Amino acid sequence: MKKILNISFLALLVSLIFATSCIGDLNTQPLNETDATSETAYKDEVSYLKSLGYIYGYWALASQNDAGSSDINVSDAGQSELCRMYMILNELSTDALKIIWGDNYINPIQYHKWTSADNEAIIAVYTRCMKGITLANEFLVRTTPEMLASRGHEAFQKTIDQYRAEARFNRALYYYLLMDFFGNPPFAMPENIGGDLPEQIGRVELFKWIESELKELSELSDMPNKGTVPYPRATKGSVWALLARMYLNAEVYTGTARWQDAKDAAAKVIGMGYKLHDNYHELFMQDNTTNGAAEEFIFAISYDKDQTQSWGGTTHLVSATLSDAANAAIGAAVVGEGQLINPENWNGYHVADDYVARFQLVNVKWGGEGFGYDRAASDKRAFFYNGGATKEFDNTTTDSGWRCWKFSGLYSDGHAISSSETNYKFSSIDFPIFRLPEMYLIYAEADARLNGGNVSDETAKGYIRQLRQRAGVDATTPSIMDLNWLLDERARELMWEGHRRVDLIRYGLFTSMQFPWTLKGGVPNGKIALPEFRTIYPIIISDLNANPKLVQNPGY
Questions:
Q1: Measuring CA to CA, how many Å separate 205 from each of 183, 194, 196?
Q2: Exposure of 413 by Cβ count < 10 A (0-12 exposed, 13-18 middle, 19+ buried)?
Q3: How far is CA 353 from the centre of its chain?
Q4: Burial tier of 336 (Cβ tally within 10 Å: 0-12, 13-18, 19+)
Q5: 246 in helix, strand or coil?
Q6: Residue percentage of the chain with pLDDT more than 70
Q7: Residues near 546 by Cβ (< 8 Å), separated by ≥ 6?
Q8: What are the backbone dihedrals phi and psi of residue 486, each rounded to the nearest 5 degrees, phi first?
Q9: Maximum distance among all alpha carbons in the chain?
Q10: Which end of the chain has fewer CB atoms surrounding its CB within 10 Å, N or C?
Q11: What sign does the CA torsion over 534, 254, 87, 105 have?
């Protein structure tokens, strides 16, 4: 079995999706007529693993049907998937991504003009996180010792206890997303299933609950250690990675900085034996599950073009940035003359030059042949192409700014997906939620925060040099690594992996006029201050209407 998601998906209880936090009102669709009932959902030991697999898989699945169907009411199923819209809300709202399509969610996010109604990216992330929590809560209700005994499944108890710990981690991660994106979401627990509507507990209290839950999981023998469960299931490394990220942003979430805790949590993960893969490009290739890249993945969302098909996930990251010309030009340079880098090109995603300028690119030229710079001599994390484009970004044309092909149709042996392959339109690249370099960067930034704004810990400097060595730019690593330089290094190392928005918020730059970027606030040069309420998204209207206990976030 390649991945947990290769298990056939469990059709959970019909009532499950309509139970927690007004879930029945969150623009949801009924499940299949063939869905399991309470009498059949947990008929044997394998059924419990299938249930757990569905909790994991809810990042990647738009429905239990084909990739063109969605179990929430949105106009495009592929644009309702959690992993895709997690990336969109985090990157499109910053300098890292520009999209020229006319879908109704795009310009409001890109220009920072979203409202509490009708933005499908916001609806998708909110709804899917709440449904993910519902899945976990339902699993916890159905797998108590009493429930197992009622089915005569006492012999499964030890195994199920481990599954329960993994479900709790997934629930904590979904809650982290809600805390980060929405500040003060409803707090739904198992007792709310079929009971009282959940209330909000506030961002600070939610932070405390997630922290407490994760610290308990880190001490439980039931939570798997690294290497004891198949990739990409969660382990104690995943638990501490989430804690490290939370502590790094604790001042944003609670008003109190936790720099030492961030450094300590990152150190715990680093000490667990994850390895920095020697080839950055292979981290984002079609075979990143098997080519060794996953050795630095602490937690990832699994994709397989033959098993977990989605127009979201990494499929959009591979296809949406390519035009016919870009596909052919990059393919010729990387794969071979007359070859494409991917069979599909949707021609919509771009990167403005002000973001690309953070990379060390050698001999940049516009409008000529090749990639527009000397790739061999440049930062190996730079996967850009500017052929036929203008440097000045214009959101009304496909021929301006840069294209990014970091996520590609390539395999490690150099060949690309061919249209002769089955399901060739879909990507098999796993999407990393946590990987080892983030822990290196957290460790270094926390050290700088504790020491006047500059990295002083030699171990931290060593971690950063490892990243720079892999990128081929170690010789240009400054002797003094300050906070601004570290922010740019995060932009280079973690591009399009869902980090940029919270990074800019943590640095106080997301809303600042002193940190402009192309089209910020809808202004071409981005020299505008955004209102502070834009650092979180609104609670969606349908949930507010369905649950009178909920209060909207300020500004909306």
A1: 11, 24, 20
A2: exposed
A3: 24
A4: exposed
A5: helix
A6: 90
A7: 22, 24, 25, 26
A8: -65, -35
A9: 71
A10: N
A11: negative
Asked if pLDDT for residue 502 goes beyond 60, the answer is: yes
CATH topology of domain 4-223+539-546: 1.25.40
Q: Which of 247, 166, 265, 168 is nearest to 208 (CA)?
A: 247
Q: Which residues contact 484 (CB under 8 A, 6 or more apart)?
A: none
Q: How far separated are the first and last CA of the chain, in Å rounded?
A: 47
- 106 vs 467: CA distance, rounded Å: 33
Kindly tell me if the per-residue pLDDT of 524 is higher than 90. Answer: yes
Question: What pairs with residue 454 in β-bridges?
Answer: 482
Decide: 129 and 136 in contact? Cβ < 8 Å: no
Cα separation, 395 vs 389, in Å, equals 12
**Average pLDDT taken over every residue of the chain:** 91
The DSSP symbol for 385 reads E
> In DSSP terms, which residues pair with 431 in a beta bridge?
301
CA-to-CA distance for 293 and 211, rounded, in angstroms? Answer: 29
- Can you read off the two tokens belonging to residue 162? 């481990």
230 preceded by cis ω (within 30°)? no
Of 270, 313, 304, nearest in space to 128 by CA: 313
* Cα dihedral 187→168→140→220 (10° resolution): -130
Q: What are phi and psi of 300, to 5 degrees?
A: -140, 160
Express each pLDDT in 294-335 by its tens digit.
999 999 999 999 987 788 899 999 999 999 999 999 999 999
Q: How far apart are CA 200 and CA 186, in angstroms?
A: 4
Q: What is the mean pLDDT of residues 5-19?
A: 35
DSSP single-letter state for residue 198: P
Cα 87 to Cα 496: distance, rounded to the nearest angstrom: 7
Contacts of 492 by beta carbon, 8 Å cutoff, 6+ apart: 358, 359, 379, 381, 382, 471
Cβ atoms within 10 Å of 474's Cβ, excluding its own: 13
Distance (Å, whole) CA 354 – CA 520: 12
What is the distance between the alpha carbons of residues 222 and 479, in angstroms, rounded to a whole number? 44
Round to whole Å and give the CA distance between 550 and 129: 17
Residue 9 pLDDT exceeds 80: no
pLDDT band at 194 (very low <50, low <70, confident <90, very high): confident
Q: Does the structure show a pLDDT above 60 at 37? A: no
- Per domain, the residue ranges of the chain are 4-223+539-546, 435-467+490-530
Taking the whole predicted model, whether its pTM rises above 0.90 is answered as: yes
Q: In this structure, what are the phi and psi dihedrals at residue 3, rounded to the nearest 5 degrees?
A: -150, 165
Tokens of 298: 């602490």
